[in-house]
């Protein structure tokens, strides 16, 4: 499993670079996937290269706190494993618009309605959280191990894994995710990304 264990490899995009146009443009996808995502992969491999004992661990194992990471490499491993985990989910979670799959599955839809009152209310809260991420980070709809939903604002490359939660929906709120097309208009990017976002099943 080269995508889940050392040496990590860049997973190919599951669709074309221009498949998310006009909401996310080809150039942004190229830089975001082939440059930014790849850099996290390369830096994670570099950080693990001198720690053979950690090389058999999966991304989740590296991030979940079940092993004590060596002090000299801890920050590099967590930042880059977080970057790999988040970007993997992010790109896998996007899909061309108008394919009829941009709504939650039946079970998740019911849980969203129960938790937030309605899908529209949830979408409003999630959008607000995405606009509210200060600096670089992510907005995540996560499932706790008690089966509850939470909207998380993750700083930098924090992940839901560190909180022992499952990622169901993830928006990249780093400027590199939208700057080429949207410049500083994060609100327009967040509004448009709903057209190409998909939810994981619960
Ligand atoms: Mn990113």
Structure description:
The chain has 202 residues and is mostly helical. The protein has helices at residues 26-49, 59-63, 74-92, 106-116, 119-132, 179-182, 186-193, and strands at residues 137-143, 149-155, 166-172. It has a three-stranded antiparallel β-sheet with strand order 2-1-3, sandwiched between helices. Helix 1 (26-49) packs antiparallel against helix 3 (74-92). The protein starts with 25 loop residues before the first helix and ends in a 9-residue tail after the last helix. The mean pLDDT is 96. It binds manganese (II) ion.
Number of helices: 7
Largest sheet: 3 strands, antiparallel
**Shape verdict:** globular
Distance between the termini: 24 Å
Bound molecules: manganese (II) ion
Kindly state the number of beta strands.
Answer: 3
Question: What's this, in brief?
Answer:
With 202 residues, the chain is mainly α. It is built from 7 helices and 3 strands; from the N terminus they run αααααβββαα.
List the SSEs and their pairings.
Layout lengths: L25 H24 L9 H5 L10 H19 L13 H11 L2 H14 L4 E7 L5 E7 L10 E7 L6 H4 L3 H8 L9
Helix pairs in contact: 1-3
Bound molecules: manganese (II) ion.
Manganese (II) ion binds next to helix 1.
Features:
3 strands; binds manganese (II) ion; mainly alpha; 7 helices; three-stranded antiparallel β-sheet; 202 residues
